[in-house]
Amino acid sequence: MTDLSRAVYPSEPSELPIKVWQAQTTLSQPNLDKLMASIRDDLQPGRVMILRLCRMVSQLVNTLPVRPPSASCAGDLII
Length: 79
Prior knowledge:
Layout: H1 29-42, H2 49-63
């Protein structure tokens, strides 16, 4: 689907295999569904899709409250 060394990207945002389960996040499922729909709706096909996706995820991560790491998930990114 994607080969970054050859600049081959998905032609449709719906091809992005983005799956996040509520057990992996501090967001409620309705908020998570709304967020994922927003990300998919705002992305347009093209070479800069990866940059836009990274920018959107970075903005999201920067707005989330910091959760202290527990012994079982130290080092894991929880969104």
